[in-house]
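Per your request, structure below.
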């Protein structure tokens, strides 16, 4: 089954918001065996919406649309879909009742804009939205389906999880599309592709290898369709053999999630001291639910006086070696471990850029230190010329170094 995702909204095309809806929907569809062939972003204009829907209905079996279902004048999706499917907008009393109860529960009074949300096409199935006022709509035309969902991400996700995916799984139990993922660290994508070229050329039809670069690593995804699903595990094991000798981590979980699970399993704690990464490592760690079980806290010691006054870095050492140096970053890691009482600590100090570099310490130079119950050590890295990539790479490498130590040290 082929699917096309359509996102509607001028704000997406203007770069004012990030289109996370397409990513979520594509992932959910892929997991049940639906192949997403296109993702289209279009403005809130009648002709654009109508023509894009007409195109998608010709090209795909399933179309998912998000956006343009609000109560304001620029939200025209509902009207255009009613026009395309030859239906009338009528007042749905059941939906009106839902809206009245929802607004009453929030201490709000129904107005004309809210009431307009109950005007819905008379030939679609209504998907009840328990998270907002815009209902989902499920249209059928022949064997094809178009599902229109709200553009607000948590409302769309609610309807995908409770209505769309369960029904698609029940309606199309024959769909088969599965994949496995692993991550390869410290090998550029081009070198990895060269190494796997012959192996990839010998893949059977229905099996596909994809390269997904990320800071400090490349994700490899093997996808199997149809009858080749039976060969997925065999092919996955074959790929791991081809990567023997490289640093490979299985599964899709982010390193911060894997690290968190390991810290919790070993009942140990972590703290961070960040200069060039500006708190990004702490952000990654605390993005994992339950991180309070093992994360003590962190210090963003951007200024030298914070390195000295809070973390206890020797001021004479700092003046002699500079902030971006091995001895300073070691004292940062040891200092934050001491003041928080954590078992492990990681610290970063570097030149993120775009300015501040010198011939001796160019932009992208980063020292990363790890302090453990048994030892402290630091490593020097030279990343890129881009500030955002330097921060992301340094954070990823810091977590990777820490992961290795937690794995190898016993307590």
């Amino acid at each position: 089954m082929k699917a096309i995702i359509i996102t509607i909204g001028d704000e997406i095309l203007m770069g004012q918001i990030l289109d996370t809806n397409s990513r979520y929907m594509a992932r959910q569809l892929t997991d049940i065996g639906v192949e997403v062939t296109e993702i289209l972003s279009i403005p809130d204009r009648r002709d654009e919406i109508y023509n894009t829907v007409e195109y998608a209905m010709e090209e795909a079996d399933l179309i998912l649309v998000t956006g343009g279902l609000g109560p304001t004048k620029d939200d025209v999706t509902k009207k255009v879909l009613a026009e395309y499917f030859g239906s009338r907008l009528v007042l749905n009393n059941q939906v009106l009742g839902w809206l009245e109860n929802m607004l009453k529960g929030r201490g709000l009074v129904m107005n004309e804009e809210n009431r307009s949300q109950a005007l819905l096409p008379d030939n679609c199935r209504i998907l009840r939205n328990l998270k907002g006022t815009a209902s989902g709509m499920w249209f059928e035309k022949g064997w094809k389906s178009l599902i229109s969902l709200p553009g607000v991400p948590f409302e769309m996700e609610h309807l995908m999880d409770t209505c769309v995916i369960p029904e698609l799984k029940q309606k199309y139990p024959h769909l088969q599309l599965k994949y496995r993922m692993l991550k390869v660290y410290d090998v550029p994508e081009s070198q990895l592709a060269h190494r796997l070229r012959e192996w990839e050329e010998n893949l059977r039809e229905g099996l596909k290898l994809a390269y997904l670069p990320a800071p400090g690593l490349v994700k490899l995804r093997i996808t199997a369709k149809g009858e080749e699903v039976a060969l997925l595990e065999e092919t996955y094991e074959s790929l791991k053999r081809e990567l023997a000798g490289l640093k490979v981590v299985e599964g899709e979980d982010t390193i911060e999630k894997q690290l968190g699970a390991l810290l919790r399993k070993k009942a140990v704690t972590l703290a961070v001291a960040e200069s060039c990464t500006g708190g990004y490592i702490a952000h990654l760690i605390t993005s994992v639910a339950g991180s309070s079980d093992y994360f003590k806290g962190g210090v963003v010691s951007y200024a030298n006086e914070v390195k000295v006054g809070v973390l206890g870095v020797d001021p004479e050492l700092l003046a002699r070696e500079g902030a971006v140096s091995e001895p300073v970053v070691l004292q940062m890691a040891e200092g934050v471990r001491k003041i928080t009482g954590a078992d492990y600590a990681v610290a970063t100090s570097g030149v993120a850029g775009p300015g501040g570099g010198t011939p001796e310490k160019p932009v992208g130079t980063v020292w990363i230190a790890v302090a453990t119950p048994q030892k402290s050590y630091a490593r020097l890295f030279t990343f890129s010329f881009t500030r955002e990539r330097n921060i992301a790479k340094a954070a990823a490498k810091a977590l990777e170094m820490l992961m290795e130590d937690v794995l190898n040290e016993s307590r």
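Residues 311 and 338 are 9 Å apart (CA to CA).

Regards,
D.
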